[in-house]
Amino acid sequence: MSFAAEVKAELAGLTSARACCQLHELRGAFHSVNGDIDTAGRLARFPLLRNLLARRVVRLTRALGAAESRFQHHRTPHQTLYDVEAQLPTALVASLVALPGVPERACDRKALLRGFFLGCGSINAPSARYHLEFVPPSVAWAEAVQATLAELSVRSGVSTRGAQPLVYVKDGNGIVRTLSLLGASRSVMEFESLRIVREVRGLVNRKLNFETANLGKTVGSAVRQLAAIEQLERGGRLGGLPPALRDVARLRRGNPEAALAELAARLRVSKSAVNHRLRRLELEAAGASPSEPHS
């Protein structure tokens, strides 16, 4: 089961005690799946729902006083989808078809988002990348979902995928807050656990890359320095160099893999002094005239 499916399974099992929350969750689900309604007959249709959402819609409509709720199934090669039809009370019909907007109460905002997420939401496991999205049926509803998130202190963006509007949250903290607002506490803990593993793995990889790069630089420098020392010795010029350069040349030849800090500690000088002397050796081997007098 994907992480998104786990989140939806948790949300579908929640119980909304207040009628206002039940209404706004049902409203979010209704519009997220492009539901339609016969206002004269008070018959609401929720097309092509997955099993979890179909059962959730049936429970919500019955809790809100639906005279009858029934569903039909459609089999596809990969899953079974359901059409839910519910005979609604007259007062509920008007609320269900109300224009897109942000509910006044915080609990109703959370319930509306929960309905939308169950119907048209998705989330990636944090081991891949941070991404939570809603795919509302219209630009007006995309703006309403984004405004609802903003009222709940979650920063989101609006984009399009083809001609379909899209509301997305891409930062880890924003996704954690959104899951908490939806009521998916178990999924929050799993998300945080996976996020910690990802961040630790990233930190280790960055450190390894940094150390590998430094090691590569150290090895490359040592190879050049040893080649310069060999060239000076073959040309009989090494013995004529100042004692400081002969000492660092002897130490480098005996410790080809040592870092500058180790060489500096053995010579009891600074790293910059060791680096300067080794560069002088390379210049001498290349036949260049050092810019400073020998030391």
Automatic annotation (TrEMBL):
Keywords from the UniProt entry: Cell cycle, Cell division, DNA-binding
Entry's Gene Ontology BP terms: cell division; regulation of sporulation
Keyword Ligase: no
One function term, GO molecular function aspect: DNA binding
Domain Sporulation regulator WhiA C-terminal: 204-282
Ranges for domain WhiA LAGLIDADG-like: 110-201
InterPro entries in the cross-refs: Homing_endonucl, Sporulation_regulator_WhiA, Sporulation_regulator_WhiA_C, WhiA_LAGLIDADG_dom
Lineage: superkingdom: Bacteria
Function: Involved in cell division and chromosome segregation.
Similarity-based family: Belongs to the WhiA family.
PANTHER family according to UniProt: CELL DIVISION PROTEIN WHIA-RELATED (PTHR37307:SF1)
Name this protein carries in UniProt: Probable cell division protein WhiA
Organism: Candidatus Dormiibacter inghamiae
Gene, per the UniProt record: whiA
